[in-house]
Amino acid sequence: MIDIEKKIAEHTLKKLHKKSWNTLTLDDVIEKKNKKQKFIKSKTDLLRNLNRYVDMILIDKTKNIENSSTKDMLFEVLMARFDILQENRISFIKIFEALKKSPNKLLKLFPSFLESMIVTAELAKFNVNGLKGSIRLKGLFFVYFATFYSWIDDKTLSLEKTMTALDKNLDQAEKFSKYIK
């Protein structure tokens, strides 16, 4: 991620503390000196950029993750992702609230979300190659989004409810994965 993309992501999150996603415009987040940039042309591009921004921070946060069981590593990486979201909770919840009312916009972001799940899997050393890997990737995607709904409702500072939900969801995925070996 280049500096300008990082600055736009940070500025987007900052602006969302004061505005709703629906009232936010590209002019609100892209400074005049950066109008000639070519990668952000729509609000969907802003969302993709935010997704890459979270991935960039996640990669940095999990550089020194301890090698352990697949489930434990997935837990650590996914919780690191939720910790990143928590830092800008208000902004991410505003985006979620707007997107859940526009499923077609959410579908446009599906490839970007899958890329993030691939990043997550790689950081956790979770193999998502081949046909079985494709099934595992989809399972990881569902574990993440099922846990995301718990995160939305989690008002605890330590994200206890999110951790509990993630652990439960990973347990269920582990049980299911025994059928695809």
Rg over CA atoms: 17 Å
Write the H/E string, N to C.
Answer: HHHHHHHHH
Mean pLDDT comes to: 90
Query: Biggest sheet: strands, sense, closure?
Result: none
Terminal CA distance reads 36 Å
Question: Overview of this structure, please?
Answer:
This protein is mainly alpha-helical and 181 residues long. Helices cover 70% and strands 0% of the residues. Helix 4 packs antiparallel against helix 9 (160-177). The longest helix is centred in the C-terminal third of the chain and has 24 residues, at 130-153. The mean pLDDT is 90.
Q: How are the SSEs ordered, and which strands pair?
A:
Blueprint: H1 3-15, H2 26-29, H3 43-61, H4 70-87, H5 89-99, H6 103-108, H7 110-123, H8 130-153, H9 160-177
Helix pairs in contact: 1-3, 3-4, 3-7, 4-9, 7-8, 8-9
Summarize the structure.
The protein is mostly helical. The chain has nine helices and no strands.
Sum up the structure in keywords.
single chain, 181 residues, mainly alpha, 0% strand
